[in-house]
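In the current project phase, our protein records have gained a structure token line. A sample record follows, to show the layout:
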Amino acid sequence: MTVRIVPLPLSISNAYLLLGDQPVLVDAGKPGEEEKLLDLLHQHGIAPSDLSLAVLTHGHTDHAGSIDAISRAGVPIAIGADDAGLLERGVNAQLPVTGFPGRILRPVITRMTFAGASPQVLVRESLRLDPYGVGAAMVPVPGHTAGSCAVLLDDGDAVVGDLLRGGFAFARIRPHRPVRHYFAEDVAGVRRGVDLVLEHDPAELYVGHGGPNVHATDVRRRIDSIAPDARDDPVGSG
């Protein structure tokens, strides 16, 4: 089936609508954005009850903080099993930085909490989304967090959450340029995840911050700066 990716730009992160036989939401923004998220859905003719599934690419609160706007309509939540605890507690645990900007942002993100939510679908291996009306798979890509996942569409493109981001100065400058994310729990895992996504041969990667899309050719060209090999990383995950 053909699936269309519709970006839903929120204040500091991106959510996405996957429009196939049924609509699926990917990510839900930071705490306090419930009304904005609902308004963006409404602009595309979607009520929360129309959604067959809400996918969370990971458990950080800037992507999961307004999920209650969706879950209270009875929509099941899918998340990587190793991030279920983050979602249930509504907190950001480890935030190992990859450079100086991450050190500046970490106190802000750490304070960003919400009441938490209970997932219904825990993903430990590739999960087909056909039963939810979308020709795609939700695939574990641990690295940014232990339970991070990407959504790989059958017709090529991918929604990758925080495997990488787009642009500089909080995406005000060159938002479509792929760059390294501020945080990574497992540097080597991020590289494996990016490699896995690129093996899917997408034309575009849809990111959690900036973009909303970055070109796969640019990711391939800049992969050693976006997702350095852990042995060559001068920063590590401090």
User: Anything to note?
Assistant: The chain has eight helices and 14 strands. The first strand starts at residue 4 and ends at 9. The chain has a mean pLDDT of 95. The CA atoms of residues 37 and 43 lie 10 Å apart.
